[in-house]
Amino acid sequence: MKILLVGEYSRLHNSLKEGLTKNGHEVTIVGNGDVFKKYPVDIDIDGSLVKNNFVLNKIRHLIFKITSIDIASLESYIKFKKNKNSLSNYDFVQLINETPFNIGQYFEKKLLAFLFQNNKNVFLLACGDDFRFISYLLSGKFPYSTLTPLLKDRSLKKQYEHTLKFVSEKQKKIHNYVFSNIKGVIPASVEYKVAYKNTSKVLPLIPNPVNTDSIKVIPFVKDKKVKILHGINTSNYLKKGNKYFEDALTIIKKKYPNKIELITTKNLPYNEYIKHFVAADIILDQAQAHDQGYNALEGMAMGKVVFTGAGDNFRKHYDLKEVVAIDTSPDSIKIAQDLERLILKTDLIREIGENARKFIQKEHHYINIATKYIEIWKSNS
């Protein structure tokens, strides 16, 4: 079958493509590579000519300030239209998000309209920020979330300006437009399953695909310093809870300076970040989530200990008895205690890492997940 995957976050669609291709399907990814992360896409519509030219980018920001029009989005629109013959008549199309191109509502809707008009079976992933999910987080129904800092301190509204755009009236219109044209929405994690419960067109959760064939297990080596990676994306600093990790690491560095090696990165492209990722024993991923993002899943697939969302909802969904990741809440003292336990009893690092790899193989294997997507697309077309 011929399948179009629209947009890319954290290599999710690339891994799905690999699984679908293994199952004999023809797959194309269109998108912008998720900005600075530069994930591979087959049809690249990023407004890179404007963004990467110093003068044009300065003009871009000036025009946007005066008119709210982003000429980089116009470039994306032009690139998309040039490829329109390659974006029609697919058996199945999947949007990674209700705004998969992230180019502003005006151009976004134009591109979505083309896809809906020229493809019959379009599905949506509940993944990333969207109207329904952010609305649910703002309700405060989770004990904590990426929006907890804002709910506790409304003075942070400026820092959450981008996130809050997803509950604007303009975004609500896009949301309603997308839902009126899709065949169904597939939650990509337990958090989205909870937020989308009883929503029109919601389908069963399908876990993120992970290509374990291309991810080698890196066994933990005892009797050396424990390497801890704290990768920071500054645009998500508050949402990921990086401050809790930083405070915990301050405690740990003071207590065990000769037992740990700390690696801190900021805003690295995927190809550079993954080198540090591979070298680490412990990955500090998120402190305010209830499930794992894609980076966490990759780390677990390598047999690493990942600090991330792995609480009650997650354990119940997968009926887990063993620890596959360190459930992490916005509590620096608890994070420090969990790190200390691993540093002092390094056999746990190996044990949890082995559990993590087995879990990914069982629940996230890319070929099995690709089969689940085909089954759910077919049964809802």
UniProtKB/TrEMBL annotation:
One family name in Pfam for this protein: Glyco_trans_1_2
Keywords assigned: Transferase
InterPro entries: YkvP/CgeB_Glyco_trans-like
Domain Spore protein YkvP/CgeB glycosyl transferase-like: start-end pairs: 255-374
Protein name listed in UniProt: Glycosyltransferase involved in cell wall bisynthesis
Keyword Transferase belongs to the record: yes
Origin: domain of life: Bacteria
